[in-house]
Every structure is written in C-alpha cells, then in structure tokens.
Design a protein that fits this description.
By secondary structure, the chain is mainly alpha-helical. The protein contains nine helices and four strands, in the order βαβββαααααααα.
Length: 244
Amino acid sequence: MRAYDYVDSHGQTEIGFGVTRLSGFDLLPRIKQINKVKLYRIESGESDLYPRLTPAMTRPIRWDLIEQNYDQMIKYATAIKQGTASTEAILRRFTESAAHPTYQAMLEVGRAQKTIFVARYLRLRELQREIQEGLNVVESSNGANSVIFYGKGGDIATNRREELEMSVLCLRILQAALVYINTLMLQDVLADPEWTELLKPADQRGLTPLFWQHVQPCGEVRLDVAKRLSLGGAAQAPEAGDPD
C-alpha cells in the first residue's frame, strides 16, 4: 500500500509530483482551477488520439531525459528517504541552476505523474471526496495548532536546532494532551444511551478529537464589577475624618 500526502492547490507543482513519485508516495492535491491544467502526451504523433482533450494537451514527455538521469534521481530520492539530505536542501541546490539535467529529469517525472493524477481526479469522484476529507483533517489540525501554539503568532523565531526541536516537541505534547482530553470527552458522550441512539453510524464516522473551541489559551479571567481595583499600588487606609 502506497503512502500519500494531501495538499491544497498550491502543492500541485511539477517538481513536487516528481520528488514524491521518486520517494515512493503519491501527492494528492486539491485542484481548484483544473480547467487551466495542462496534460502531457505520452509520445509525439498522438495529436488526434484524444480529440476532446486537445485544448488541454501539450508537448510529449521527454522520456530520454528521464532515462539519462535515472540513476542520479534515484540517488537523491534515496538520500531523502534515508534522511542523509533534506528535500529543501536538494531543491535549493537545483533552483540555483534550473538547467541542471537531474532537476529537468525530475520535472519530466513530475509532469508524467501529474498527468496521471489529473486523469484519475477527473474520473474518480471518490478520489475527490477522499482528498477533500483528508484536507479537512489537515486544516482542522492546523487550526488547533494556531490556538495552542499562539506565542509570537505561532512563529518559531529561531534557527538554532536545539530551540527548534524544543518548540516542536512542546507542540507535540500540547497536541497529544488536547487529543487525549477530547477523546475522553467524546467517550463520555458516546457512553450516554441517549446520544448513542441519536448519533447514527455516519455521524459517528464524522467525529474527530481535533476540536478546540473549548480551549482558553490565556486561561480564565473573572471580573467582579462590584469590586474596585487598586491602580496605584497597595491601597492605603483612609485617614481619620476622611470619607470612606
């Protein structure tokens, strides 16, 4: 079973499709302006093979470029999977020289994979639903992170590895605590026979512990409007003869 990654429309880059395909998992983006997506031909001389797709068809895939740089592409993909090099570092090296033959070959792999994906996306309604549902989970998780990891606007303003790791580990603890508490709350609700009868199987499938509307990031603030606040430091006792 292949792994997959759900991304929004901005994630449907050709290099993204290429890197993920070489890394052994599928990129599943949500495509908003699918009418502007171009499909690449398998080979030349097929201009009349798909007459209804002619407006969306463009040039053939350069399979020769993929074949010539196949070993190098596998080398970089293996480095990414084993963690000896990051995807960002490799792509940064390539973007400094967009004419790099290995980078161009990865683009061709991405164009082929993107064409395959778009054909599946248009044909399979269940794939569209799966991607939408997957993105809903991702967006819900990101929304929760913005609430529980709100210091400095949620930005990690450091490049030091130790501080980055500490921030991410603290965030994971908060995530685990939130999911744990929410799961216990859901269990209590589902243990109630009244709710068990009310919630149908479809409703129960839609339950998720990734909700945060009950979270108070700054704690609970209670105001007593009947009590006067001391704004000038410690309150002084009134002198004799002074009105209260």
